Amino acid sequence: MAANSIGKAFVVTSFGESHGRCVSAVIDGCPAGLPLSEKDVQAELDRRIPKKPEITSGRIEEDIVEFLSGTFEGHTTGAPICMLVWNKEAVPSEYDIIKDLPRPGHADYTAYVKYGGFSDYRGGGRFSGRITVSFVMAGAVAKKLLRLFGVEVLAYTKAIGGIEMKETPTLEKIREETYKNPVRCPDSVYAEAMEKAMVEARKEGDSLGGIVECIALNVPTGVGEPVFDALDADIAKAIFAVPAVKGVEFGAGFKAAAMKGSENNDPYAIRDGKVVTLTNNAGGVLGGLSNGMPIVVRAAIKPTPSIAKKQKTINLAEFKEATLQVRGRHDPCVVPKAVPAIESMVAIVLADHMIRAGIIPRILAGKRDVGENS
Question: Max CA-CA distance within the chain?
Fold first, then answer.
């Protein structure tokens, strides 16, 4: 049973491990005729890692993307697009100590049981946040495709360690300010407080979690395939593929449970000849279909499980209780790295569903005329 692919029309397959040779993405179903170069993808990869050592892992990879297939003369051909980056800064020896000592909060033990001890434990292997490199590569293609049809996907850090933005920032601030600081928060005051909290957590040998909010603009009404391929269900599934995500909500989310129907319902109106809702508690999705309003989704990110504090665990080889102090290069908070990954996963799902809906054609405008030179 294959479980490393997502999508039905725009199919993304991810492969690679944290300390393997490379991390890669293959896209099958991208329409032919999309202008695409390695520079397009590289620009997104360059945003993935905050360039500040105080709040990020000591492992700094170049992540230079290489295209192996699927493009010709600057355009997609309709064939599978294979992209990869090589792992160059892996230090496998850092993980010798945990071979038989599963780290609390990581998938070490569950992977050990599922794969009979054959899983790659180095840096979490296939379960590492490193695999989001493939998500960002595929997301770069999806985002460029969506832009041709007026759809924009934006994500930012909403909260870290209990420090949460009280008001939703304007779209202009999200676009202009999010990547001006290493925590990916579009408000400099909150960003400074979040960064201080991360630095303090690292000094204490601990870590923090937070919230990423993602907004998709101009998604046409009616996108989605209920009941089991509902748009919000597929977006949630994609976001949960990002390691460390422990919760997903749309619109009012869990707050809707405390509302009355009169408070939660979004009244309809007509503005500039378009049907809109006056509020957006639904988060842009009703009945598994986009309703024309911005899709608003939030993801709860747990604290980084690799911490310097001593923790209780077990020795699998000796089958007895043990203690573990994780060493190596780890982030005090992975929320900033999750921002581009979540943005990418939302874009991938939207591209897939818009192709399935016939909104995005299999061959893009500007194609060579059929019969040319015949």
Answer: 75
Q: Where are the beta strands (DSSP E) in 75-229?
A: 75-76, 81-86, 152-160, 163-164, 210-217
Handedness of CA 352, 353, 354, 357 (dihedral sign): positive
E strands, the chain, in order: 5-6, 11-16, 22-28, 66-69, 71-72, 75-76, 81-86, 152-160, 163-164, 210-217, 245-250, 268-271, 274-277, 285-286, 289-290, 295-301, 310-315, 320-325
Q: How far apart are CA 285 and CA 316, in angstroms?
A: 46
Task: Give Cα 233 to chain centroid, integer Å.
Answer: 15
Q: Are 184 and 339 contacting, i.e. CB atoms less than 8 angstroms apart? A: yes
DSSP 225-276: BTTTB-HHHHHHHHHHTSTTEEEEEETTGGGGGGS-HHHHS--EEEETTEEE
Contact 56, 336 (CB under 8 A): yes
Checking phi first, is residue 253 left (phi over 0); if not, alpha (psi -120 to 50) or beta? left
Q: Residues 6-36, buried b or exposed e (16+ Cβ, 10 A)?
A: bbebbbbbbbbbbbbeebbbbbbbbbbbbeb
Query: Could you count the other beta carbons within 10 Å of the beta carbon of residue 354?
Result: 22
Q: Kindly report, residue by residue over 123-155, the tens digit of the pLDDT.
A: 888 999 999 999 999 999 999 999 999 999 999
- Give the separation between CA 295 and CA 219, rounded to whole angstroms: 8
Radius of gyration of the chain measured on its C-alpha atoms: 21
- 3-class secondary structure, 277: strand
| Architecture of the domain whose range is 5-356 | 4-Layer Sandwich (3.60)
Reduced to 3 states (helix: H, G, I; strand: E, B; else coil), residue 140 is helix
Provide the Cα torsion 254, 255, 256, 262; round to 10°. 180
- Structural domain spans, the chain: 5-356
How much is the pLDDT for 1? 59
Task: Dump pLDDT digits (tens) for 20-37.
Answer: 889 999 999 999 999 999
Which of 214, 174, 207, 204 lies closest to 190, judged by CA?
174
Structure tokens at 282: 């639904």
Cis preceding-peptide flag for 227 (omega within 30 of 0): yes
Q: Which residues of 146-184 are buried (b: 16+ CB within 10 A; e: fewer)?
A: beebebbbbbbbbbbbebebeeebeeeebeebbbebbbb
